[in-house]
Amino acid sequence: MKLIIKEYLGLLLEREELDAILPDLLSQMGLNVYTKPMRGTPEFGVDIAAVGSINNGVESVYLFSVKEGNLTRSTWLSSSPQSLKPSLEQILDAYIPSRIPPEHIDKPIVICPCFGGDVNTNVKQDLAGYEKRNTQGNISFENWNGDKLAGYIEDYLLNEELLTSPLQSLFRKSLALIDNPEASIKHFIILLNMILEYKSIDEPKRLSQINVCLWILYSWGRDLGNIETAYLAAEKSILFAWEIAKKDQGKNNKNMKAYYSILNTYNKISSDYIENKILPYTNIKHGISVAIGLQSDVSVNLKLFDLLSRLAIYGLHLQNKLFTLKPEENKNIIDKIKKCTSSIKEMIINNPLLLSPYKDDQAIDIFLALYLLSYDNEHDSFVAEWISHLINLSFISYTGNAKYPSNINKFYELLEHPASTDIKYKHKVTKASILYPTLAIFSALYKLDNLNDEILKFVNQHFQHCTMLYWYPKDDSEHHFYIKNKLHGAELTSIQLDKDKLLDQVFNECQSSNDFFNLSIIKQKLEPILLTACRSNRTPVPLHVLCDFYESSFINNKETTKQINADVQPSNSNTV
Amino acid sequence: MSYLDQILENANQGNIKNFLLHEKHLDHEETINIANEIVKLHNDNTFNLNFMLSEIDISKNEEANSHTIRKIYNKALSHLQSPISEVINCINHLSKSNSYISNCYWARDGLINYFKENCKDLVSTLEIIKSGIDPNLDSDLLVFFLTAYYEISYEEYIGITNKLLCSKVDFHRKSAIESMFLYSLKTQKEIDNFKIPELIKQFNTESSENIKSELINVIFWISQFKKDTSYDEVLSIIPVKDNVELFEVFFNNISHHQTYLNKSLIFKVVKLIHGNFSDNTRFVANLDLFLYGLLNGSDDFYPSKIFFEFIKNNQSINIDLFSSFSHKIAENPKSYSYLLTKLFLSKEYLLSKIAYQLISQKNNKNLEIEYISELNQQNPIKAAKKAFGWLFTHPITIASYLVSILKIVDEKSQIEVEKLLFDPLLISYPGELGKYLDLIIEKKDPEISHKLEILKSKMEQHFLQLRQIHIPELFAPLSHYEQHNNYMNQQFEKGYEEAPKGALTELFFSNKVHLLYSNKIITQYTRSSGKAVRSEHELHSHSFSMEFPQLETLDPINLNYMLYAFRNGEVK
């Protein structure tokens, strides 16, 4: 295990990545971390400061200067302010005299140059000489290289007692299968389940274990050039971890801090995935589709909708972050959201299978994308066109017996679908739908009356057998939302697709089924995590998230509505 | 020994019959020589050829030899001095045992010559023939007789045929009419002897549909020689109401005598055919045969025009019934292109579908066609889209069609065609079409080479861009690949099981032998002579490949919707 951890440490590419794991480790070692890494230049050479006792030693103040990879001549001393030697000098000259908290001023001070790799031979003498010269009084030096860090991580986070042999085995399997994400993630989910159930270990420790495992998985995947497992694992990690952390919802304790560390790791992985693996290719005609593989349209379709919702979730996380920032801080985030939404639009235009859902539950992916796009009315015309195409192509496929949206979930059956032109088969595979209600709801919210009429007409004509429904969280949802191990919530059936009744019906039900507001993740103001749970666990997105949109739709400008309705005529459209 | 010596020797030994029975393969000259010698012996009363041949049980002889005997007799007939009754009996005997022709057409030339040689007995001969010998032969005998009579004296011939036309006996009228059809009228006097109004009158009073259709043939035939003929008048005799039998016989006749008839007139006749002939396989087979013949040596569009006119009124036809025509027309690119263009320009969905069926019948993926602009109706873009809707799975065929349209349309339409060529066509078939475009570009056609070069480079750029995207994270899950392979294998197995009996694979594996550890097969067998034979053969693998259209994976529903709309002519 130590070798795995050491390799992982060596693979960390940026100083921030080592920073991310170190405070957790120190906390788990029993130290009190009083200075955490900040963006930019460290405070007088110190990236992390902690106080406490390691291995029952004397209680000391530990001052860390963190550098990535191996310590080389250039990272030891160069013109860069990030070089180690200047940092150490700052610690000695400025930090120790002025920044040590008064209550720790009499304690021994250990300055810890910290790096994920090793000290290169040609710098060893310089470092040793420097440390020898400056070891005096209560000041001493202790090098935390990859080997030492790996030892501590193994001892304090992943040791046999904490991460038992079966868990370590699962983790190793997940790492070994990293090239086969489908298999790898299965092992990782079992691992998460076991960590979740390991209640004899305290929550912050279990959360840190999840974070370290996720980090290792990510760094390995990144090194191998495939972070698909890491992405899926990150999604599952934030959901499993919330199940552990949620009892402290609303507090600012170790538990929640550990949870936010995982969330940061998730954001790091998600950002890497979206920005490097998807965004550069959305503007290429058929680019993403071809990248998925030309073997079958079903594979392409499933993956495209999956990627669409990943992109949407990324944007929704950013959107949520936007609410927490001051206006002067949010330009970068706004740019990222704009890039994300324009990429969603490009992706839909350039990958036409995104106009033809094959599965009814792809309504979830569509919902998420529409939800993100609904934040900016600049996208209204596009949204109208996309919905129009989704509706028309679904109907055309159904009447023309092409691959129409169905309740089939098994891949093989989807390949065969439609297995028959017989009406009995058609009815069997379209027993119920959230797709058409979803499209009808958004059409109504955007006041796309003609689309609502089309849906109503088609449903009346061909879908009398199909239960039109929508899902609402109930009191049991809190227990199963994040880790879906049981069906939960309730479904509103007999939805009236008539545009005059639909919105009132479904949003009035939001008021009746108001358990949504009691969900711990909503109380924590982490709505994107809830949306991630919907995406990952294939749970319909609670309509409550659209309540504001519903209310604002009453005051929508009629002229705008008219314009959208004019734009949405499929024959006039050449955008989507 | 010379033939004569052999015949004389056989005759002296009373073996002339055996000699004929054993003489199997004779060329033309040999046949004439033998016939001449035999005629001499017959006329010298050495033997009676008619009696002798009437004694041969020809049905027990091999077909080749029966054929030889008939050939010799046909040649001998010209100079044979025999009463008509003997000749007719002999012909009747030799015809009856003919397994593949139940008439005496084989003796046509001989009989005509015989009648001419024995013209002094013509009146009594006519009476014998008119009285009827055998229903299978009567009509032919009378036709040959009349043919001979025409060559002796056409005035008298006219008199006889006029009388025959008034006869109540069907074969008399039928033969009289059929005989008219056989003549090439040279002088004005000859032409004037045949009166169209009379024939039309005959048509209107005729009760037999069979004879009516013969009359139509004759009227058409003679009309061609008369400068003042009004085709409208001639065509007016075709009943407005469907007359399946009439057309059936008409096409049966013209399928055998097509070169005599004016193609434009037949085209007009076909235009008059209304109603459902789709299930009339005999009629369709005759039309198929007629069109096949018409295509031979034809460099005009009449075969295509006639075919189109027919299927226009019989859209539910099973195109497989036109196998001879569809095979032949594919060898004639201009006619083929003309027909396809006409079909694609039609408003009828089923007619365009027939174009697709014709092309699919001809299993040639490199088939090139072109838009024919010599049609009255002109709308190349409409034809392009229709053709595109139907022929998307025949990339080279549709590409060649679009390229031909690119050459003739204005700039605005060119953009439309180029768009179709690029997306979805080139995007779907970069391999096959990439190579095909290279071939056209190499021809350096100033009108299109440059445009195609631009398209080709656009396609290359597009695929270069796509090839650069190698993101393992985006790959479909491995389990999808496995399941998809299983699915495809299952589909191929199903397809193999459902393949029609007699398919190529069935022929290959009709008697399956399985090899497990090698790719060579050793067989041993014993010949009828008792000699043991051993042979060793290496098995070679056979494979074929085809390019699946990429858009079937990337955008199947839109693609199919587009094709559907194009087929129906619904999308602008």
Euclidean distance between termini CA atoms of chain A:
51 Å
Shape of chain A: elongated
Q: Report the radius of gyration of chain A as a whole number of Å.
A: 27 Å
Q: What form of chain B results from the Cα inertia axes?
A: extended
The averaged pLDDT of chain B comes out at 81
Helix share, percent of chain B: 55-70%
Mean pLDDT metric of chain A: 90
Number of strands of chain A: 9
What are the low-pLDDT stretches of chain A, counting only 5+ consecutive residues below 50?
Answer: 557-574
Largest interface: A-B, 49 and 33 residues
- How many runs of DSSP E, i.e. beta strands of chain B? 2
Topology:
The complex is a heterodimer of chains A (about 575) and B (about 575).
Chain A: H1 2-11, H2 15-28, E1 32-35, E2 48-52, E3 60-67, H3 73-76, H4 84-98, E4 109-115, H5 121-134, E5 139-141, H6 146-156, H7 165-176, H8 181-197, H9 203-224, H10 228-245, H11 254-278, H12 287-292, H13 297-324, H14 331-350, H15 362-373, H16 380-400, H17 411-416, H18 423-429, E6 432-433, H19 435-445, H20 449-462, E7 467-468, E8 470-472, H21 477-480, E9 490-492, H22 499-512, H23 520-523, H24 527-537, H25 547-553, H26 558-567
Parallel strand pairs in A: 3-4, 4-5, 6-7
Antiparallel strand pairs in A: 1-2, 2-3, 8-9
Helix pairs in contact in A: 1-6, 1-9, 2-9, 7-8, 8-10, 9-10, 9-11, 10-11, 10-24, 11-13, 13-14, 13-15, 13-24, 15-19, 16-19, 16-20, 16-26, 19-20, 19-22
Chain B: H1 3-12, H2 16-22, H3 28-43, H4 49-55, H5 63-77, H6 84-96, H7 108-117, H8 122-131, H9 138-152, H10 154-165, H11 170-181, H12 188-193, H13 196-205, H14 209-223, H15 231-235, H16 244-257, H17 263-272, H18 281-295, H19 302-312, H20 323-329, H21 333-345, H22 349-361, H23 380-391, H24 395-408, H25 411-428, H26 430-442, H27 449-467, H28 478-498, H29 504-508, E1 520-526, E2 532-538, H30 551-554, H31 556-567
Antiparallel strand pairs in B: 1-2
